[in-house]
Design a protein that fits this description.
Formate dehydrogenase/DMSO reductase fold; 429 residues
Length: 429
């Protein structure tokens, strides 16, 4: 209503300035979205492509000169590539689980971030497969793996499950897009989400069995490894979705209510606590008086891997505190806590892979050679006195190129695919 006697407007029924304000607000959102989908996004895609090409060039150098250019040798036959492979499999599985659980069980989701989570899962799966490819000394012989495959090997299980997982993730994303257009029924989408959920759990379990079924490595040989891998995947996958959702909301790509981020934060905190619980159970079993794993615990808590151990424990604990404390659930702290959790899980992967080689399981009667370790001339005491493996600059460059490939896939998905929910379309200019 308006007070015509005084000429003052006491309500905004006839206040054109309010309408202008709302119009300017919509224009600001549209401009922000256009900037994200325009030069900013194109620049990010260009940078990712350049880094990826540089990584391919370095991979060519690795292929021409051989794997001797890396830090991997007989005493540490896996390195940064397989560590990153484990890490990206976890990121991918966590993202798909976050997306598929609400649809599989018919519960409330997280405010329309489902397709974005699946896209991040696809990108991480591509990066994980890329890590395996660059770890091959002779990728041209990849066909022999299928021609002479050993179906009793966990390595072969992982190849089959990972390939199926990537295809299923793409199908799941396609089904969600088609469901938004009314072309796929909710029943069909729910069935696909259930299959995707089972596959996501299976892909990380099989990856864990590659390590857990090796009896010769004290740190790897535990029945707890598969569920522990799944819990770690939920931690880093949920943390990645949190960071991506906040970033896309800030960029104007998503309009996400803060309540959904709080809900996601509580879930992340619960996953972190479960993962730390599994870690504590494993440490207690190994360190209990008379246990055969006391050497493993000493290596983690006071040996060469101590920085990675405490980074994981402290980082994940801080993440849980942020997620469970209402006053700390600001966007900045949620991003910081999520990044700490992601860093902690990466440190866990370093501990697992390097720790498996850090404790010698063979005694060499003869002299050491350059093929057994890069520091072969320092003797076994010198080799195992510090970290038994450290990547070379070439490995770091190739790994960065594969990471850029994953980022490029995700950014192209953001640019080209309809990943926003139907009611969250940005206003047109």
């Amino acid at each position: 209503m308006s007070d015509f006697s005084t000429g003052a407007i006491v309500d905004d029924d006839l206040d054109l300035s309010a309408a202008k304000g709302r119009s300017k607000s919509h224009e600001a959102v549209a401009a922000k979205t256009a900037a994200w989908g325009g030069k900013g996004l194109n620049a990010a895609i260009g940078v990712s492509a350049v880094i990826m090409v540089a990584g391919i060039v370095l991979w060519g150098v690795q292929l021409s000169g051989g794997m001797v250019q890396t830090g991997m040798r007989n005493l540490s036959s896996w390195g940064l590539y397989i560590t990153s492979f484990m890490f990206f499999v976890g990121l991918s599985a966590g993202g798909l689980i976050i997306s598929s659980v609400p649809k599989a069980f018919g519960i409330a989701g997280f405010g329309g971030i489902s397709k974005v989570a699946v896209m991040s899962s696809i990108a991480c799966t591509v990066a994980a497969i890329g890590m395996v490819v660059v770890d091959l000394g002779q990728p041209a012989r990849l066909w022999e793996l299928f021609a002479y495959s050993n179906l009793g090997s966990p390595l072969m299980w992982d190849i089959v499950v990972l390939g199926t997982y990537l295809i299923l993730s793409c199908v799941y994303l396609w089904a969600q897009v088609r469901a938004d257009a009314g072309k796929v029924s909710h029943t069909a989408l729910r069935v696909i989400s259930i299959v995707a959920l089972v596959t996501a759990v299976l892909v990380h379990s099989v990856t864990a069995w590659i390590f857990g079924l090796q009896q010769g490595r004290e740190m790897w040989h535990t029945a707890l490894l598969a569920p522990w891998f799944v819990s770690s995947a939920l931690v880093c996958g949920t943390a990645l979705v949190m960071v991506v959702a906040i970033a896309l909301r800030r960029a104007g790509y998503l309009s996400l209510d803060q309540a959904y981020l709080v809900k996601l934060a509580k879930l992340l905190g619960a996953f972190v606590v479960v993962d730390l619980y599994f870690f504590g159970c494993d440490l207690l079993t190994e360190a209990f008086p008379g246990g055969s794993g006391a050497e493993v615990v000493a290596m983690l808590t006071a040996g060469p891997l101590v920085p990675y151990f405490w980074t994981e424990v402290v980082g994940c604990a801080l993440c849980a505190v942020i997620c469970f404390t209402p006053a700390l659930r600001t966007n900045a702290l949620l991003v910081a806590g999520s990044l700490l959790a992601i860093l902690g899980i990466f440190c866990k992967r370093v501990q697992l892979l390097v720790g498996g080689f850090q404790i010698a399981n063979l005694d060499y009667a003869g002299p050491l050679t350059p093929m057994q370790h890069t520091a072969w001339d320092s003797g076994l005491s010198g080799i195992y006195g510090g970290m038994v493996y450290w990547p070379t600059p070439l490995e770091l460059g190739v790994t960065l190129g594969v990471v850029a490939l994953g980022v490029l896939v995700f950014l192209l998905g953001i640019k080209l695919l309809p990943l926003r929910p139907k009611d969250d379309e940005a206003p047109s200019e």
